[in-house]
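sanity check this chain:
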Amino acid sequence: MPRLADKQLKYEAAMLAARCAMSIGQTDTAVETLLLLNREFPRDPEVLYTTTHFYSELASRASQELAKNAPTSIQAQELEAEAFESQNDFDRATAQYQRILAQDPKTPDIHYRLGRVLLSKNPPDADGAKKQFEEELKLDPNHASAQFMLGEIARQAGQWEDAVEHFSRASKLDQGFAEAYLALGMSLNSSGKFPDAVAPLESYVRMVPEDPAGHYQLATAYARTGRKPDAEREMALQKETAAKAPRTGAQ
């Protein structure tokens, strides 16, 4: 394949090689060929479909090997808990994550995952989730996502000062955490601290310019700080991005 000059011939050869490698279990060859296909033909629908299918198959094989060779390991139990979670079976996911913590309370990310599951239940267990996120931060003080979720719990309860504190920490821990900047700006707007909301919202719209919510929140902050031209510009961007956003539900 590397020596083929004809693009179509290289494409067909690589596709056949990937399929053959998968059928006989040559994982290294399959992955290398998929990488070649994605490098040479990055937007080809068949390449993207084949990559999705093959990686899914590789993931399935790896999970089967894990269950076969280390069925009682924390990794196998975590995979099982994630499966329950993906099926919206939150009670069994909760029980599985709790078993992992009983086995090793210091397993990274499990308190965080358990907290997310508790919030997904109907009704959500916000108090239980808060405790889990706090436990995760005891193990890893730099866990930006746990800080963010604590901010979300506070924001939904209208506890703006706590929300601002947690969102601010999350954005500092992970400077690429776009949602933290939006949530911080929204919380500052809601608490009437419009001048303070400008900077995080400006950061957010730079990171996610296609989100109308960011432009709306920034327009609000600008308007309430006397920056009328900037507010009008952001409202125009809000309308423009909202018109481009994918529609959901009945048409």
Notes: The chain is about 75% helix and 0% strand. The two ends are 47 Å apart (CA to CA).
